[in-house]
Amino acid sequence: MVVIDATVLMPLMRPDIPVPAGADGIPITRVKERIDYLVKRLEKERTKIIVPTPALSEVLVRAGAEASEKIIEHLQKFAVFRIEPFDTKAAIEVAAMNRELLNSRQRKRGIGNATWAKIKFDWQIVAIAKVCAATMIYSDDGDIKAISARAGIKVQALADLPLPPEDAQLGLELTGAADDSLKERENENQEDPRS
């Protein structure tokens, strides 16, 4: 199982949003193709994609009522997606993560510069991933990455998602002898009155 958070779910479900930027600040190219290929690949491998309800709510907050219904219907239509709530097991996991952080005296340091409210929200997402035994979280959120590292879950950024193989190949521009030969044949056909 894998988890996608709002930073990956948003461009998948709401293509009207601006193209997100990568860690380098440069807009990520071909975002939709990357995410679609990820979903197809995971579906082919029969790997469930967990959508944590806190991440889902981030996507729905500005979508409006009608668009929210369509997003939920879309996710429920495909067997590859599974919406997972923040339940009792996840609450226990967040408490354990908080307890560990408090006992380490690090408190918020090393987690990020976000507000405590946002970090707690991110903890819920990571806790759901941990409870579901997810092996990967797809996210561009630095706080998710930091919390996941503490929880022992790998994170992959949107910019690091591969493009579909046919799109990743570059077109070949043929120049040189073969190109010259083609031009010669075209010239011969133009000069030959029988053509």
Summarize the structure.
By secondary structure, this protein is α/β, with parallel strands linked by helices.
Please write out the topology.
Layout: E1 2-4, H1 6-13, H2 31-44, E2 49-52, H3 53-60, H4 65-77, E3 81-84, H5 88-103, H6 116-131, E4 136-138, H7 142-151, E5 154-156, H8 165-168, H9 177-191
Parallel strand pairs: 1-2, 1-4, 2-3, 4-5
From the helix content, strand content and strand pairing, which structural class follows? Answer: alpha/beta
Radius of gyration: 24 Å
Reading off the top of the CATH hierarchy, the class is best stated as Alpha Beta
Span of the ends, CA to CA: 63 Å
Largest sheet: 5 strands, parallel
Q: How would you describe the shape?
A: globular
Helix percent reads 40-55%
Order of helices and strands: EHHEHHEHHEHEHH
Mean pLDDT figure? 83
Oligomerization status of the protein chains: single chain
Work out the number of β strands.
5
Low-confidence stretches: 172-179
Number of helices: 9
- The CATH architecture classification is 3-Layer(aba) Sandwich
The CATH superfamily title:
5'-nuclease
The tally of domains stands at 1
Strand order of the largest sheet: 3-2-1-4-5
Strand content of the residues, in percent?
Answer: 5-15%
The CATH topology comes to: Rossmann fold
